[in-house]
Amino acid sequence: MTLEISHLTTQFGSVTAVDDISFTAKASEITTVIGANGAGKSSLLRTISGLEKPSSGSIKWNGRELIGLKPEAIVRLGVAHVPEGHAVISELTVAENIAMGGLFRRRKNRADLESASKEVYELFPRLEERRKQLAGTLSGGERQMLAIARALVARPQLILLDEPSLGLAPLVVEQIIATVNDLCRKTGLSVLLVEQNAITALGVADQGVLLSLGKVVADRPAKELRADATLRAAYLGY
């Protein structure tokens, strides 16, 4: 299951957020997209998941063109999007939020919703302890865990993670990233990880794509990008 982005451009009026981007995210690997604020990272994920309409280009998942499909159809094809900002429904309980993840499951996976829910509680035991608690009363780290758990209930083959470390304590970030890494290595889940925290992202990823002002500046193995001091200094500020 490979994600192929080819000459993708997304514009908002006169602003080009994603500018002729091409790269491939391989199956069962973590591909990270890094860059400063305004690089186009979130716009890229929103375009892949069908929330934004591109001006041109192609997005193929397992050979299937995603452009033109509705977001729910893309979810049914095995692509789940976890947006930035620990996005959960505050007025619903933890259990109700997780159940929402089953709304757009692929037909063959509808029967095992209970099993999938059990699995995410095992991944994030803290959520099981708070099953009846309103999501709006959770800590930032718990809300991020819940957002990821809700996406995993859909049984995705590709998960789009947008800034999971945003606003969280380093220890919580480490736990969440370790869980995602473990899922990828043990289950074959493919991950497209968008991060401003390049050190964290490159430390766990297989491949790194560096964006600047909507363009791909570098597309290399993550270890190589992490070791390139000149590139880091020029585009990431460290």
Automatic annotation (TrEMBL):
Segments forming domain ABC transporter: 3-238
Keyword Lyase part of the UniProt annotation: no
PROSITE patterns on file: ABC_TRANSPORTER_1 (PS00211), ABC_TRANSPORTER_2 (PS50893)
UniProt KW Repeat keyword: no
BP GO terms, sorted: L-amino acid transport
Record key words, sorted: Amino-acid transport, ATP-binding, Nucleotide-binding, Transport
GO MF term list: ATP binding; ATP hydrolysis activity; branched-chain amino acid transmembrane transporter activity
Family that this chain belongs to: Belongs to the ABC transporter superfamily.
Family annotation (PANTHER family): HIGH-AFFINITY BRANCHED-CHAIN AMINO ACID TRANSPORT ATP-BINDING PROTEIN LIVF
Name used for this protein in its record: Unannotated protein
